[in-house]
Amino acid sequence: MRLPAVRLFGFALAVLIGGSLAACTSSMLENAPSDPSTPWKPPSEAAATKAGGRSGANDFGVRSDDAVSALQPTPGIQRNKVYGLPELIDIAQTQNPATRIAWQTARQAALAAGMVEATYLPYISANVIGGSQSYSAPLPVAIGNQDEVTTTVSGVSPQIALQWLVFDFGQRKALHEAAQHNSAAANVLFNGVHQKIIYDVTRTYYLYGAARSRVRIADQNLANSRKIEAAAQARVDKGIGTTVELAQARQAVAQAQFGLVQSQGQEKDAYQALLGAMGVSPVTQLRVSESGSRRLPDSVGAPTEQMIKAALAQRPDVLASFSAMKASQAGITAAEAEFMPKVYLGAVAAGGNTNLSASGMPTIGQQSAATGVVVGATMPLFDGGLREAQLKNAQSLAAASEATFQRTRDDAAREIVVSADTLRSALASYRAATALTSAAAVTYDAALDSYRAGVGDITTATAADSGLLTARQAQADAYTASLVAASNLAFVLGRMTSRDASALTSSQ
User: Fold this and answer.
1) Of the listed ranges 21-25, 108-112, 394-398, the one predicted with least confidence
2) Does residue 129 contact residue 156 with C-beta atoms inside 8 Å?
3) What is the mean pLDDT of residues 49-73?
4) How far apart are alpha carbons 150 and 182 in whole angstroms?
5) What domains does the chain contain, in order, with CATH numbers?
6) How many CB atoms lie within 10 A of CB 130?
7) Which helix (H) or strand (E) holds 130?
8) Is 454 left (phi over 0), alpha (psi -120 to 50) or beta?
9) Given this model, what pLDDT does residue 343 score?
């Protein structure tokens, strides 16, 4: 009998396929580490290591890939050109990956809002169903050489179907509103990323300028120490100095050289920090203008309540948090709509072409067409508390978003007050450091002249030199701190909005 043989073959084929799939599933683990203490290796390397035997400690290195190691200098950088702060900001806004990430995030949020809008429209699809089925049955009595009858049915049915959610008690409207708020948040955060980049470049530019100032101060300190050393050597040559004085002077020179080396290292670190804020390659070579010619404001008053309110109204983080709160509130409306019925419309237009053939009989063909329209409503009656849980979750998210907005707004207001206080303190420190530097310079000159004349000692001269170094560094640091504080105040006020705004930070 042919029928049992066919069934047996089908069963054997199914078992074979199932066993093969199971074997493929188990072999997938061969691509993972064999145990927690053994390094992973590609299959080819693992086989070679196993064949050659393992010796020594486990090596957890990975295969290098040249595709990920290419570091290219930033295009368009001219090595002979000196770049000012506005030009550095322009480079950062075009090269920093953070801007592209924020841009794509804003685009994704806008597309999400568009996808929600698409749910208002009907969904139309074209479907084609085709197939063929054969069935063989043995005859109880053979007719000539024919001992079975084979029947074949085949057909094709093209269809066009329409599905349309007509009414859902405002659920799609709430979801669309939430998507629009999320899109608005992503848009203002995109601008906020640019503001943050402008501030970061401005801050690191000033810090790099401070590092360069410390190098100059350290170089001046080395020159002053050598003057004291020369005076000590001259006193020894005249027989009025001691070797102890000369040793102390040489120690001061060595200390000044050490300080210069440290300052040069800090300058390189500050340069890399500036490149990092710009978002360019660390191998980029560019010349940066000096930042020491910017005028500092004479004084800064305390921010008024009106100023704080105006700043909060244009802070990207505050606006984004407010939009997120509105989106979460719309989520409550969407969750409440799940308790209401949904009205939908369905329509279909289909055609068919069917053929029937049997052994020894002519083929019978039939063509048909059908259309239909359905209007219905659906409403879940029991879901085990799922909708209630979803509603409570939406309410919880809304409450958390509201608290987050309040915290963000309060933190932003606090940042404004603290930044203004920091700027006032930095300006006061700079004025005090300037007076200290003037006094320390007079003291150093007097101490050096006295030592050269033989009426002073080496200890007083070296102490005056150290005091002058400390005063100059304090003045440079206070100057930079004032510039950074002014930039920070402009940033927290929401005014660091363009490259031109960075030039105004020193006149807040």
Assistant:
1) 21-25
2) yes
3) 73
4) 63
5) 168-341+379-507 (1.20.1600.10)
6) 10
7) strand 123-143
8) left
9) 94
